[in-house]
Each structure stands twice: as structure tokens, then as C-alpha cells.
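User: Second chain of the day. Same drill as before.
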Amino acid sequence: MSMETYLNFSQDNLWGELWPELSLCLGALLVLGVDLFSNSSNAKKRAGSLAIFFQFILLAAHLFDYLLLRHTFDRESFSGMLKHGIHQDVMRSFFLLSSLLVSLLGHRYLETRKLRVGEFHHLTMIATAGLMLLCQTQHFLVFFVALETVALCFYPLVAFDRESSKSLEAGIKYLIFGALSSALLLFGIVLLYGVGSNPEAWGATLSVVPSSDAFSFEFSVSVAF
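Assistant: Same format as last time:
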């Protein structure tokens, strides 16, 4: 593959199209850093307020961006793996609003139960970034990575209340079934790519059936076990 091909591929990686997701991940790291390196309890509580304020500002900026500035037409980036448009932007705003509401509802609960405020908001924001990326994907690779990002954040969130046996039990069950479903999903993606790229490797044959219709084909599959 020539250098020109790599250059064309890199020029199609429009990171500016993912500025809400990247900003949310940076905000999540900032919230986690405030929680980890703060000694006083008041400073740790401020991590939750910082997360809520950051998500509110990001939601307002995203709405202003695609409603009043530029994002009104369909376009693609990352060699067609991601699609951007008004429908995707609406879903991104929906996930941002959902994350903001979750942070608002969970903030008081975390203080009452004396749980780690920063870790909860950090995981919520990372999961939201994964969901925002998920609604834009057009490729199985990005789809799987985004889905696993969301799942890896949901596992500890389900079992976040470590003092509750029900919460820990739910987290373990979710981890087992989530890992099983992810393995089946990955296996199905591999089969689809395998059959699509090289049918003969899977025992499939493509034969043309003589017919008056020039576009009549017969696809037969025979797999030897």
C-alpha cells in the first residue's frame, strides 16, 4: 500500500466531528482526577457538581453547534465507518441529556450512601461517550468497540453499591451474561466477514443457473464438519 493511500486515509479521520465525545472523555478524566487527588470531603463532593456542570455546558454547546451553526447535512468520516447528520446529532443530544439526568438523580444518592462520587460520574460520562459513538457507527468494528466501552462501564455501575449484596449479585450476573453475549456477537461478526470476503473458505459455492433472466444466480452452502 502506497504512502498516498495512507495519506488519504489519515485525511479522512475527521476528529473534529467527534468533539462532543472527546470533550466528554476529557471531562470524565478531570472529574476522576478531582476525586482522587482531593483530601477533604467537600472537595470530593465538588467533583459531582463539576460533572453535572460540565455535562450541562456540553449539552448546550452541542445543541447550539448542530442547530444554529453547521450540522444539518449527512456526511461520513473515518473512511465511511462513521456517519454524521441531524438524526445522529439528535441521538447524541438525547444521550447527553440522559447522562445529565442520571448524574443529577445519583448525586444525592451517592452522598447519602457515602459512595465514591467521582468514580460514578466518571463511568457515567464514559458510557455516554460510547453510546454517542454507537449511534453514528456504520462499521462492525466501531460498533463492537463502542458497545464494549458501554458494557465495561455498566458492569461496575451495576455493582457500585458494594455494601449491598443484591447490587453485587446483579453485577456478577450482568458480567457473566454480558461476556457471553459479547462473545456470541463477535463470533457472528467474524462469520459474516468470513463468508463475505472468502466464501470458499467456509464451504460456500456461487454458481450461475442458466435462465432467461441474466441476473439469476443460485447460492449454495455446504459446510463439512
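Strands lie at 75-77, 82-84, 204-208, 217-221.

User: Great, on to the next one.
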